[in-house]
Amino acid sequence: MATKSDLPAFLDYFWPTIEAMKAKGGSTTIEEMEDDVAARMVLSEELRAVPHGEGPRTQFQYELAWVRTYLKKAGAAENSERGVWSLTDVGEKLSKKQAEQIPSQVRNDEHSKRKAKSPTTKIDDVVIEDDVIDSWADQLLLEF
Prior knowledge:
The chain is of the alpha+beta class. It has helices at residues 14-23, 30-40, 45-48, 59-73, 89-93, 96-117, 136-143; strands spanning 27-29, 77-81, 84-87, 120-123, 126-129.
């Protein structure tokens, strides 16, 4: 039985996703995207069916949802209507190398925005510098 560790690394989804969107004229539904990306990555039905936690999604669907989010944050894709995603001019012009840099670019941008927004966070008279806030979970915990 396949597990999450048998799936490709998160970074490996970006270029096949962009290629799949280009092949559909720059716009595709989520379902078409899933089928096309899986075909490009040569993923078996068993791998595509690996569950994500206890929820209704598969790990493959979960990874592609995050890829779409990252592409949107990078300005490479947009969802013009529910369930339909399109490449922007930026996305159309991306090279494979540029696509692979999107995750780190988006994380750096998000970190910079967070740091600019709030240089320090005070919790019960304890000041925590943003440099120690590494994850979304840390940030969420600080907001409560």
